[in-house]
Amino acid sequence: MIEARTGVRALALETIGMTKTFGALAALDDVSLRVEPGSFHALLGENGAGKSTLVKCIMGFYQAEQGSLLLDGAQAVVRNPRDARALGLGMVYQHFTLVPCLTGAENLVISRADAPAVIDWAKEKRALSAFLDRMPFRAPLDAPVSQLAAGEKQKLEILKLLYLDQRLLILDEPTSVLTPQEADEILGLLKGMTDAKEISVVMITHKFREVTAFADSVTILRRGRRVGGGLVAQMSTQEMGGLMIGDTQISARAARAERPPGSPPAETVLELAGLLATDEEGIDVLDRVNLKVRAGEIVGIAGVSGNGQAPLVEALSGQRTLRDGRIFIRQQAFEPTRDAYHRLKVFGLPEEPLKNATVPHMTVAENMAFRSFDRPPNTRFGWWLSPGPMRSKARELIARYRVKTQSPESAIGDLSGGNVQRAVLARELSGEVDVLIVANPCFGLDFGSVSEIRSRIMEQRNSGAAVLLISEDLDEILELSDKVAVMSQGRIAYVAPVGETDRATIGRHMAGHA
Amino acid sequence: MVEASASVKTGEPERESAMRDWSIRLRRNAEYVVIPLFALVVSACAFSLFLLLVGKSPVMFFELVQRGGFGTAFSIQNTLQRSAPLILTALAVAIPARIGLIMIGGEGALVVGGFASAAVAIPLLERVPPGPTLFVMAVAGAIVGAFWVGLAGLMRHARGVNETISSLLLTYIGVAIMNFFVEGALRDLTNPNKPSTKPIGDAYMMGKIPGTDVHWGLAAGVAIAILLHVLMTRTTFGFAVRVAGGNPRAALAQGLPVGKLIVACTAIAGACAGLAGFFEVAAIQGRANASLAAGYGFTGILVSFLARHNPIAIIFVAILFGGIVASGGLIQRRMDLPDATVLVLQGLTFMILLASETLYGRFSIFKMDAGRDRT
Lengths: 514, 375
Prior knowledge:
Chain A is α/β, with parallel strands linked by helices. Chain A has 18 helices and 22 strands. In chain A, strand 21 and strand 22 (491-497) form a beta hairpin.
């Protein structure tokens, strides 16, 4: 025990009054937090709460205007990421930073600041295996990184930091690319290392489950300020959620309208029959996808990012040509043409709407008219535009969907994320909807907007639309869907009604072992 | 029902909000005028430094540009004469730019268009009256030009070939094809000096705009610029092009035929440049030869970028550069500067202009919503 006390390698970290502004926006406002050596600290907050800004200030990507950083009680100056690294601070990013074509061993060795120009591989291999013997877990070192599963890559990222002798690891939503099982395994390993006082961990997250299961202490940020925190054992998730959201008004969730029992099943509206697509290198990204969505039903597609969800959305929205297979809507073959979208009433809410559903430098009114600019009353003679009706329609939608904008003539790119999303919702959902394709609709939005968007989707379902929801957020799928499908390696690996499945089963299919 | 209630809810007087909309639009557009003007001033300063380095007077240079380009009735007409092809070749850059393509093949389309005009005229001369002949020549020039740049658009759409490179390379092929014919099958043997097609003759040359020394190409260029401006801003085609150019993924998700729009825009562009070639043949040269490749296609790129690909602005910028080109001779004689001096000015302007692109959105004075709308 005494040996363990003196052998504490983990760093203590403390920030005092960190403040950072971008223009008029205070991204961080007087934030102080303390991470005890060898503790697992969670940084909780909504998107835009300042979590990333805080760790970027700690890591030297940004310079805080005020406030100081203490490491093991001593003032530390971090002018750039290289300084942070020298002080023993390491960061795991949301997305992998390993070089895919190199092996694990090569990635580790080249990441060293003092990697020699000519590398003596025999010597390095011996040193690496000695290093691995000291580690509580392993990752394959001889295969190219591109061949590793996501969980193994994430382990390798962490091993890399340990290899570089970093003693405080900052993890930015490390589990977003992992299956629930992989996430639990990795967080468990890190927890073991913090308990052994080998390292300290700061983890950015918005998943309460991970906080309660693994973290010792927590700091909650909202709008750039620290609004609470303490030992996880002494806080309930409700308390944490309340602090995260604050007094934001959450509009009531639309309730799921249940079908009367015993009524015949609704007709199948959307049918995907054997969709096959390949990427530029000829590798199958969609491998015979079959799926049916009935009227008044939400089918949620879960899966680890990169298992064909993006190509599926692209195929349904005309951005990717299929090599084989057909899409049917009410038994009619569907081709993604303007006429078909209109006739069959197919609409879509893509992720990151500013990037995928708008033209940022065009006006709000024009962006809201994407569906209808070539139909009366927006046109005369079939080709002449009438901006008058377009603008008054936009005014009506802006009022109805509470889009905060100076005027319909403002460029949509000048609006905030939530308002862009509302403008796109107004465009896509203000008419009659038969089929709705939704992809990660809440990605990057604040709580208020998330709740509003989810209730709009539920409203569409209740009024009879067939909704296909593709999401990387399993909680979102479990909340909204009537049926859950799991996508793995380009195919639908599993379909079940939401009442007859659970997180563990879905996770197994996401990992492809089942 | 919903619409009625909503329009009551918006409530504010229509006129006031229309005024505000107008002022927002004005502020936004002011940015597109101020920044290019600023770039022009900076390039004039940089060019003055260059002149000082080679020991010449910048004051004299700009004075001569003023005199040689705009000083007298004669020089203004000379300027306008040279602006005509610039308007058309600039449009050949501006229209593809609206759909997000950087096409620099105007020079090639001008050459093949001009050559086609001269070539179709040969069998018609003496048999068909001048009016119909000129019409056939214009149509031939436009169609061949449209095909030429359209080909680059088609390769882009069907095979993902970079349109900037393919249109540039097509220019060299176009010049080579013209040379192949004017030095071979279509060579006018009565002209031993410069390989050319058979001249169309004075009777068949296009006339001047009455009361001036300027040919009809200027009027056609201005008319086409206005027409294309209307096409881009007031029609469904233009709207679709702006969506596809602003965000191709969003356009596809709206079911817009992005590929067809690309080919259509590039064909329109090629037709403009082809017409520029037609006017060079029918109003200036009277025949097709190597003089067609006089660089109008390349200067047109600069004109279009400086005008921010706005067809109306192109008219004015083309006249400015027409003046610079027109004063070239005077500058050469009076200041003992080589011909290439004007090219140095153009090159400097282009580089500074491209660098100024990074300034857009940096100045809050042009934005009303700035800082107010963050959640």
